[in-house]
Design brief:
It is a single chain. With 328 residues, this protein is α+β, with helices and mostly antiparallel strands. The protein has 2 domains: 37-140, Transcription Regulator spoIIAA, CATH 3.30.750; 145-308, Alpha-Beta Complex (Nucleoside Triphosphate Pyrophosphohydrolase), CATH 3.90.79.10. The protein has helices spanning 3-12, 58-64, 88-105, 193-205, 209-212, 264-271, 281-290, 302-308, 313-318; strands at 44-48, 51-56, 71-73, 79-81, 118-121, 131-134, 145-156, 160-168, 179-181, 183-186, 216-227, 230-242, 256-263. β7 (145-156) and β8 form a beta hairpin. It is elongated. The protein starts with a helix and ends in a 10-residue tail after the last helix.
């Protein structure tokens, strides 16, 4: 197998290579893009309480400058939430007001997928939240997004080792109709990682409690990609769940079209097609590596592949607060 070449080909259609000093532009993996959506040379670091939490594209900066009581730009070009906004509640309320106006103006395509579900913005995952914003808007500010994904697998007597995949409902605001891992969901306000995993497993796949007792944490993967909606520094918390061969998942929240049990031998072909959800490919690759299906014998560049699945997003952001962006 030449898995790394396949991954590079896949990533090159989704990840833009840049050479400026902003942290998100260091997540290029050395690839040339098939296309790009914005000029990151004109991006600006986004700070809250003096710490960088994101990156704003030029078009978002322009819109934000209409609200000088919410955002301010310093002499180096960094964008900060106004220091008069002292509390989590104040910052959350003011940014929600701005986002609501942008949504009414139809200013950014991502806000068409307004969720009435919020993500929290932090300097680091273990740090106290500084504010919250609707999850559809997180990519406008390039803030780190967190999610949970469950690899549901079974040792089938005829098919051998197989993974359950879901096809997302056509009504989903993101990735409609795309193939996905068995269970996946964003980490919203008020829910821990494990709470989210258990909640999504019940809602998306109707997995009973006695089977969820076998749920096993398997670390995380992290990656960056860019789309017409914005910038996505993503971390996915990964779980493995071995299921009996006679178990069939059933959706209960209307967000899944069908489930399909796919032998591992066919999974690789599936995940590199345009029909597979971008953010789930790294999680599935991680599973195949951890379970030995991709190894140093069949993938000589295994160390490079592993590195691509664990981009140090938190380190890169923490190093950038004192850096000045390149001028447009």
């Amino acid at each position: 197998m030449i898995i790394l070449q396949m991954l590079i080909s896949w990533l090159s259609t989704r990840i833009a290579k840049r050479d400026c000093k902003l942290p998100c532009t260091q997540l290029s993996f050395g690839l040339q893009p098939a296309r790009t959506f914005c000029d990151l040379q004109r991006c600006r670091p986004f700070l809250v309480c003096g710490k960088q939490v994101g990156v704003m594209q030029a078009k978002v900066v322009e819109a934000a400058c209409r609200y000088p009581d919410v955002f301010q730009m310093d002499s180096s070009g960094m964008i900060s939430m106004h220091p008069s906004l002292k509390t989590y509640e104040e910052r959350s309320a003011r940014i929600n007001h701005v986002l609501t106006q942008w949504r009414e103006e139809r200013l950014f395509v991502t806000l068409k997928g307004w969720r009435n579900e919020c993500y929290e913005v932090r300097t680091g995952f273990a740090d106290p939240p500084l504010l919250k914003m609707d999850r559809s808007a997180a990519c406008l500010f390039g803030v780190r997004q967190y999610g949970v994904e469950i690899n549901g697998y079974t040792r089938h007597p005829q098919l051998g080792m197989s993974l359950w995949l879901q096809r997302r409902a056509l009504t989903k605001p993101t990735w409609p109709g795309k193939w996905d891992n068995m269970v996946a969901g964003g980490l919203s306000v008020g829910h821990s990682v494990l709470d989210t995993a258990l909640k999504e497993a019940e809602e998306e796949a109707s997995i009973p409690a006695h089977l969820l007792a076998n749920l096993r944490s398997a670390g995380s993967v992290s990656f960056y990609f860019e789309s017409e909606r914005g910038l996505f520094p993503n971390t996915e918390f990964v779980y493995d769940l071995e299921l009996p061969a006679d178990f069939v998942p059933h959706n209960s929240d209307g967000e899944v079209d069908i489930f399909e049990l796919v032998p591992v031998s066919q999974v690789m072909e599936r995940i590199f097609t345009p029909e597979y959800k971008t953010t789930s490919c790294p999680t599935t690759l991680d599973f195949l590596i951890r379970h030995g299906f991709i190894n140093s014998d069949n993938e000589p560049r295994l160390p490079e592949l592993v590195e691509l699945l664990h981009i140090p997003l938190h380190y890169l952001y923490s190093q950038s607060s004192s850096q000045s962006p390149i001028s447009p």
